[in-house]
Amino acid sequence: MLLPAVLLVLAVGLPGAARAATPAEAAAERPAWPDAVHVDTGAGVVAIRWRPDDADWDLRPLARVARFERAHPWEGRPDELIVVFDDGDRVLACTGEEVGSQAILAPALSGRPFVDLPPGEGHLVPAGLSAVPGPDFAVGALDEGFALTAAAPGGGAGPGEPGRPIVVVPDDATEAAGFPPPPDLSGDGGGTLPRSAIERVIREAQAAGFRRCYARGLQRNPNLGGKLDVGFVIEPDGRVERAWVERSTLGDPEVARCVLDLLAQQRFRAPEGGSVIVHYPLRFSAD
Length: 287
What we know:
By secondary structure, the chain is an alpha+beta fold. It is 20% helix and 26% strand. The protein has two domains: 8-140, PH-domain like, CATH 2.30.29; 167-284, Fusion Protein Consisting Of Minor Coat Protein, Glycine Rich Linker, Tola, And A His Tag, Chain: A, Domain 2. It has helices at 23-28, 99-110, 195-220, 253-264; strands at 8-10, 18-20, 36-40, 45-49, 58-61, 65-71, 80-85, 90-95, 114-116, 136-140, 167-168, 226-234, 240-248, 276-284. The strands form four sheets. It has a four-stranded mixed sheet with strand order 5-4-3-10, covered by helices on one side.
């Protein structure tokens, strides 16, 4: 196992003894920000290379990541994505234009929390240095050979497959395709369900999974964004009977499939008087 470049320091007055460096001590021994930060969700490791010529990486368990923070551009300081560890150590992960997409990808793929900081708070890059390149950042199952004994895997798998086929998305789906609903869908379902009850479930699904669906699309296209209007049927027992895309300007069928798979797993409050047909607009943006 590769040991961190700065992990142990000698204890004063006890030759040969060692203790773990405090975050402040470790920070004093390293550059202001690293050369590279790779979050390997497959290995459950955050790998940090502090200097370009370092042979060893600073390896930390992904489970030690308390959260990701985004500090928005402010008075000469750039957009910043920061990794915050459970001991309070804050490490700059990336800066500039890529922060918008990585701020979605990193928490979605790693399963760690995310905090959007208020304007002017939390910056690690001094004013006037916004043009200085930030660290090389990567997140995902990187397969780079990092290993850490007893590292707890972080990150999440995407939504599981539904128990039966209910997703309707054409394989040749393209931008603004106007996907048709299932041909046997007719009528209004006859049931009623308060809008608030539907929106509550959708918001929970968005926090838990829609964000992850979109993050995977951003890996394929960092500029991905647009509208995805979905429809679905809530049965009298609260199950989702089927889900489909009504309109899309997103241009990524895989994101649509992922969203519909997730919708298929939701459980709503039982409607009164029959089933309910829902038409719901979703918006995806990295901003």
